[in-house]
Amino acid sequence: MDLPRLPDHHRIVDLAGVRIALVADSPARREALDGHLAPVPDSCGDAQLTIGFVAEPLAVPLRPADTVDYAVECWLEGDRVHLRHATGLSAVVDGTVLVVGGESTEPDVAFRHLFQYGVTHLLAPLDAWVLHAGAIGRTGRAALLLGSTGSGKSTLAYAALSAGWALLADDLVVVSTAGTALRVTGIPKQVAVPAELLPEGGHHNGEIDARNRRPMPAEVIDVSTHELAGLVRVSHGTGRGQLNEVPAAEALEDVLWSFPARTTPTLARGAFELAARLSRLPAVELQHAAGPDIRVRRAGELLEEAWASSLLKADSPRDADQ
Fold this sequence. Notes:
By secondary structure, this protein is of the alpha+beta class. It folds into two domains: 11-126, no CATH class; 130-312, Phosphoenolpyruvate Carboxykinase, domain 3 (Alpha-Beta Complex). The protein has helices spanning 27-36, 107-123, 153-162, 248-257, 265-279, 292-308, and strands spanning 11-15, 18-24, 49-54, 67-69, 72-77, 80-85, 90-94, 97-101, 128-131, 134-138, 141-146, 166-169, 173-176, 183-186, 192-194, 213-215, 226-236, 242-245, 283-288. A hairpin with a 4-residue loop joins strand 6 (80-85) and strand 7 (90-94). Helix 3 (153-162) crosses helix 6 (292-308) and helix 4 (248-257) runs antiparallel to helix 5. It is globular, with a radius of gyration of 19 Å.
């Protein structure tokens, strides 16, 4: 199965230090592709990788998928990876190229999911690993925000932004392992925060969506790269919320669940090795306050407490067998 012929690129972006050419075969697909990477800075260098979005459906192997994760099926065919979303879009990763093609009943959702899995395979050979996580930063150092959908990552991201932190991402990040330090860069998408938490005015804009969330403008995202200092597991709590230290064994499990690569045999070993490194960073659980009227303020206070204490000090990583 040959890849479709791609037009010339219309843009080259720098994502986590990797130069990626963006290619689309129509104005609508160009707009959709740019929309997923809008805040990512442009690059004037030669592209290392290519991401394309085309009308042509991309065939998948005529056999059961090797892995299925949520709505995405994955087939491994030598060095090539085939992906298909339950709503119709499909994708192929072949060496330095990711192509998404076809039609979908939910194109935005399908493209976002295929992009997440596709870019995981595209970046991994460059020691850049995609995680389903948020990230916030201060003075060049960052903490990963870990938790499943609905755990409160967007709420904590908004609380951090309101308290003066840099918001790198609330949903998807790239962790780079080149060099001695681990570094994180956000993969920007529009941050949407529960409407009940937002005051009139402030950072947010746009209409409330079906999940009762209101989007914030793209410019609130910081696209710079930060050194990783620690991990924050996000969850819902009671009363005024609280902080709990997270043992390394639990942190390892949290991180592994954040890897889209965890279910792919060809990437699982590298994902586990990075997860082990990440689990040796200081880790804390931040349980949100129960009341929406104090949740944002208390989350900011708890973050400050964790950052000022030994809970998020990465100067001397802990033992992995803690």
